């Protein structure tokens, strides 16, 4: 079944239609009920479980009435035929709501923050516990997804995307070297060495303060190259540096995305100790030099 609603839960939760219109709920508990059903769409939940989840300290008769009201609201939002209500169990028909957490492994999810960021349901202690458990369970997959999305941006020279994902990862994990590396690379790519070095400095100080540790040798080398580039005297007009592969420069790749991707993949292979991927023979020296300016800086 093709989904007709989309649940964005990685960040402030939103329920959207196919047209991108937001569906709102009058109470958080009603929205929270839909979220609980949608995150594991197709799974059957007992009425007792849902009552304990949202109305733990309420008399049974009143909790049953509150659940019935909430289910009526959910039916209105998703369609009566899409909610299976039985005498003892309740389930959302699989595929009706596209929950972003289900697209983490394919790295197609839009990650804006932690799971259900800022979404609290007063009086629902067990729901809060479930949310915290899922947040902890999802965090490694969120990190992996963001790193892969950053790599995808690098392969096409799209460092605005790299920076966006790096900032989200840094907000989630301030001690993530992957995040800081992405920020540094993105700032260096547009020629902003000052803020790239500031990002490194903040990370270095925080790492020392909280863990008594130091950045990796690779990251330190990137910072050193940036400092060297900032101090280097300008080249005379028309003169090309023999060490262009060690410079961070703001370059725009237009029409060479495929070549850049192949060069980047070959560099990754070399870094991992695998045989390098085949690089197109027709790649010009200037394009090759431009494309190498970022990867070799990361690994030199």
Uncertain stretches of 5 or more adjacent residues = 240-254, 282-300
Strand sequence of the main sheet, in spatial order? 2-1-6
Instruction: Calculate Rg over CA atoms.
Output: 25 Å
| Helical content band | 40-55%
- Total DSSP E strands: 6
Q: Assign an overall shape.
A: elongated
Structural class: mainly alpha
As a percent range, the share of strand residues is 5-15%
**Distance between the amino and carboxyl termini:** 50 Å
Mean pLDDT: 84
The topology string of helices and strands comes to EEHEHHEEEHHHHHHHH
How many helices? The count is: 11
How would you sum up the major sheet? 3 strands, mixed
Task: Briefly summarize what is shown.
By secondary structure, the protein is mainly α. The chain has eleven helices and six strands.
Explain the overall architecture:
The protein is mainly alpha-helical and about 300 residues long. The chain contains 11 helices and 6 strands. The chain has a 3-stranded mixed β-sheet with strand order 2-1-6, covered by helices on one side. Strands 3-5-4 form a 3-stranded antiparallel β-sheet. Strand 1 and strand 2 form a beta hairpin. Helix 1 (about 30-40) packs across helix 3 (about 60-80), helix 6 runs antiparallel to helix 7 and helix 7 (about 195-210) runs antiparallel to helix 8 (about 215-230). It is elongated, with a radius of gyration of 25 Å. It starts with a strand and ends with a helix.
